[in-house]
Write a structure and sequence with these properties.
By secondary structure, this protein is α/β, with parallel strands linked by helices. The chain is built from five helices and six strands. Helix content is 31%, strand content 22%. Strands 1-2-3-4-5-6 form a six-stranded mixed beta sheet, sandwiched between helices. The chain starts with a helix and ends in a 19-residue tail after the last helix. The mean pLDDT is 90.
């Protein structure tokens, strides 16, 4: 039996692969606010600037207790939640659970055949240009070959020395 953490990792990978098939570039665990106060599980970006955020939920309590979920909406044009089929079946069967689903959120499930599928399309709402630029800058910073994530601040380079 997989742990909740393992299930969450599978869901992230499946959601990223879904958007990759639609020609999006995907990044895991991207901070959308300064100092990492909020990190989106998956951020997918297309060359036209379209930004998608996917939050994965490995259980019903994980979904119900997430108070920050709606705060991601201002950072993306499209927002999805990704579940296992069992978790989604439990959520959609109870109105009290469905109340926690943001109005414009779409739903993705990881099917038994190993592929993710959109079962509820999201509503598209274009974000403001300043937020889009900030998100694209975060993605560029994160993807840089040299950044604070993978290099010391000061490195000496000598030509011809071993």
């Amino acid at each position: 039996m997989a742990t909740r953490r393992e299930i969450a990792e599978y869901l992230k990978e499946a959601a990223a692969n879904l958007f990759f098939r639609y020609r999006y570039s995907c990044t895991y665990e991207l901070g959308v606010e300064a100092w990492g106060r909020r990190r989106a599980d998956v951020v997918a970006v297309k060359l036209n600037g379209d930004i998608v955020i996917v939050e994965v939920k490995s259980s019903v309590p994980d979904f119900i207790n997430d108070k920050k979920m709606k705060k991601y909406l201002k950072f993306c044009d499209r927002f999805y939640l990704c579940f296992t089929p069992e978790v989604w079946d439990k959520i959609k069967s109870k109105d009290k659970y469905l109340e926690h689903l943001p109005k414009r959120a779409g739903v993705i499930i990881l099917r038994k055949d190993g592929y993710a599928k959109i079962v509820k399309p999201c509503k598209i709402k274009k974000i403001d240009p300043e937020t889009r630029m900030a998100m694209l800058a975060r993605l560029a910073w994160r993807s840089g070959d040299l950044s604070k994530r993978n290099k010391r601040a000061r490195v000496r380079i000598f030509i011809g020395r071993d």
